[in-house]
Amino acid sequence: MLFFIQEKGQGLVEYAVILVFVAVVVIAVMRVMGPSVGNTFSRINSSIP
Fold first, then answer.
1. How far is CA 40 from each of CA 8, 32, 45, rounded to the nearest angstrom?
2. Is the pTM for the entire model greater than 0.70?
3. What single string gives the DSSP state of each residue in the chain?
4. What is the Cα 37 distance to its own chain's centre?
5. Tens-of-pLDDT digits for all 49 residues of the chain?
6. What pLDDT is attached to residue 12?
7. What pLDDT was estimated at residue 49?
């Protein structure tokens, strides 16, 4: 019966770990793709009169 008490906080920790993992992946993708996206927007902006 004692092990049921510990499961309540376990779900919150799992969600926090998943959230941190997603944040790290998003930051990594933005650092890799950021310059190319910026160049694309600059190219589109300069082509519009």
1. 47, 14, 9
2. no
3. -THHHHHHHHHHHHHHHHHHHHHHHHHHHHHHHHHHHHHHHHHHHHH--
4. 17
5. 455 555 566 788 889 999 999 999 999 999 999 889 889 999 999 998 7
6. 83
7. 75
Amino acid identity at 37: V
| Cα dihedral across residues 25, 27, 31, 33: positive or negative | positive
**Matching residue, tokens 């589109």:** 44
